[in-house]
Amino acid sequence: MTSSEEILIRCEDVGVDFHGRSILSGINIQVGGADRVALLGPSGCGKSTLLNVFSGLLIPGKGRVQRSISARDMSFVFQEPSLLPWKNVEDNVQVLLSLMPEKAQSTDSQQRMRDILTQVGLWERRKSFPDELSGGMKMRAAIARALILSPRLLLLDEPFSALDDITREKLQDDLLDLHAINRVSYVLVTHNMEEAALLADRIVVFSSLGAIIAELKVSDFFSGERVRRDSQGVAAVRTSIRALWQKSGEESLNA
Amino acid sequence: MRSALVVVIVLLAWQLVCQIFTVPSWLLPAPTSVVAALFSDAPVLMKSFYFTAKVTAVAFFIAILTGLVVGFLSHVSRGVRDGIFPFTILLQTTPVVSVAPLLIVWFRNNAFAALVVCAWLVCVYPMISASYSGFRNTDPNLKRMFRLYGISPWKSVWHLEVPSALPMILNGIRISGGLALVGAIGAEFVAGTGGHELGLAYRLLMAAYNQETSKLFAALFVVSGFGILIHFLLAKCEKFALHKLRFGANSAARV
Q1: Using CB atoms within 10 A as the burial measure, which of A232, B28, B182, B183 is most buried?
Q2: Using an 8 Å Cβ cutoff, are A58 and A52 in contact?
Q3: Considering only CB atoms, which chain A residues are within 8 Å of B165?
Q4: Contact between B149 and A99 using a beta-carbon 8 Å cutoff
Q5: What distance in Å separates residue B247's CA from the closest CA in chain A?
Q6: Is the separation of the CB atoms in B98 and B40 below 8 Å?
Q7: In terms of CATH architecture, what is B41-254?
Q8: Does A222 fall in a domain?
Q9: CA of B141 to nearest chain A CA: how many angstroms apart?
Q10: CA pair distance B158, B17, nearest whole angstrom
């Protein structure tokens, strides 16, 4: 179930064990071009592990992973901005690009830098260092660093969970805008049901044992445009996910 | 400024106590007597200072090099880390005075080398520990990104791990610098100097044997002054480098 014909990543019966403990089991999932997928589940259910499997940084012990894109067509955004304190915004954004000459030559990097920093609202602050930026600006710089590499798939590992409500909502909107402009697919790891309902087209619901319980199509819950709070659609998604967890014996999440 | 004022007050009080209570000079010489001894002994003290400074500097630089190499190798290789671990415990727990006689036997004809090894034994552990912890301090998310994009391990080390490790390495250098002097003086006490050149510890011992307490204080003043100078210079270098790297004033404590 993807939004386009092209499949970027397909996992078939993937399982990951760590020190004899099962982290993921029986994972069947695929991500297509321009897809927006949320991996939703309790902490420790293996969502971030699955991102590592997608990227190829982790080879699963069981199952098969097929990719039509290379690792260099993917990019990560983490829970922490993970910026280099000794580099300014511009240098942080292009640090990976500068170490990959073949990527730098393939695009007009200066123009692209300007475009992306403008998109994330940091062009005026491009000479600022991380210690001069707010938490939201740092996260925007991290998103810009991911986008400058022209990824076809963004792997977002709870990027907004450490931010305050106002900044989080602003960055969530920014992500939707970036998707509208760049049409880049993303997989978002979250344990926030509202965030999943607002940012994804598909929500993959995990059990605490690292198995997929269900895959929800978000458009089924919304009659019109998705809006943030007090939306019946968000409430319906929340109710549906809670019912799924209850059915599978999971404790409900405070999300 | 405040500490300078405290020093002046202490010296004045010391002078007054010696004069009012006519304290015998072999027990506690007045600061003026110490200053007089400092000037009268200046040529021999300078020669001894040069010798001790040479031992301290050589041991310190060897400790920096070995600390960086061992710390880095322990970071990249678990085998090296496990193999070296018992020796680092030995370095921490074995008093240098108990090793000195063995070094005298081994370096029979080279007292300078024996002293350098003794001083090195005292100051190398903080350097190993600091550089190992520093390299371990690298942001794991950025390491994942570098790995994802196939950036070579050496580029990762140079562009990511070395700058990330610098705050802790500089902290280790500062601690190690002070300990190098402690090790050099301690080594001279135990091992002597082979009769060729005479360090500051020898001046301390001779002044004590001859009950020339003013000269003892004068030598002690040079030792303490040298220790303070080492600490001050290294602390300034550390602060300057951290400021340049924008790690912030408290980064050493933070990491």
Answers
A1: B183
A2: yes
A3: none
A4: yes
A5: 6
A6: no
A7: Orthogonal Bundle (1.10)
A8: yes
A9: 7
A10: 58
Q: Distance between CA A112 and CA A101 in Å, rounded? A: 15
- The residues near B164 (Cβ < 8 Å, ≥ 6 apart) are B134, B135, B137, B138, B139
Nearest chain B Cα to A77, which residue?
A: B141
* Cα A157-A161-A163 angle, rounded to 5 deg: 125
Which residue in the block uniquely carries the two structure tokens 């912890």?
Answer: B133
Per the DSSP assignment, residues forming a β-bridge with A7 are A32
Distance CA A89, CA A126 (A): 5
Most trustworthy range by pLDDT among A70-74, A178-182, B187-191, B219-223:
B219-223
Q: Which amino acid is at A155?
A: L
User: What count of residues does chain B have?
Assistant: 255
B163/A99 Cβ within 8 A? no
Q: Which of B138, B148, B151, B250 to mutate to test the interface with A (most CBs of A within 10 A)?
A: B148
Residue A100 lies inside a defined structural domain of this protein: no
Chain centroid to CA A108: 26
Nearest-angstrom CA–CA distance, A243 and A236: 10
Structural domains counted in chain A = 1
In a domain, A172, yes or no: yes
8 Å CB contact of B246 and A86: yes
User: Percent of chain A scored above 70 by pLDDT?
Assistant: 90
Q: How far apart are CA A121 and CA A109, in angstroms?
A: 18
Residue A209 belongs to domain with CATH number: 3.40.50.300
Residue A145 belongs to some domain of the structure: no
Domain with CATH 1.10.3720.10 in chain B: 41-254
Domain with A231, as residue range(s), is 7-69+152-247
Does the global pTM surpass 0.95?
no
Tokens of B140: 């794991």
- CA-closest candidate to residue A127, choices A119, A139, A137: A137
Both tokens of A17, joined, read: 């064990």
Contact B176, B114 (CB under 8 A): no
Write out the H or E segment, with its range, that includes residue A71. Answer: none
Cβ(A78)–Cβ(A51) under 8 Å? no
Per-residue pLDDT tens over the stretch B12-36 = 999 999 999 988 888 999 999 999 9
Question: What sign for the dihedral angle of Cα B126, B132, B137, B138?
Answer: positive
Vertex A35, ends A29 and A41: CA angle to 5°? Answer: 50
Is residue A30 a contact partner of residue A10, using CB atoms and an 8 Å limit? yes
DSSP A219: G
Please write the tens of the pLDDT for every residue from B119-142. 999 999 999 999 999 999 899 989
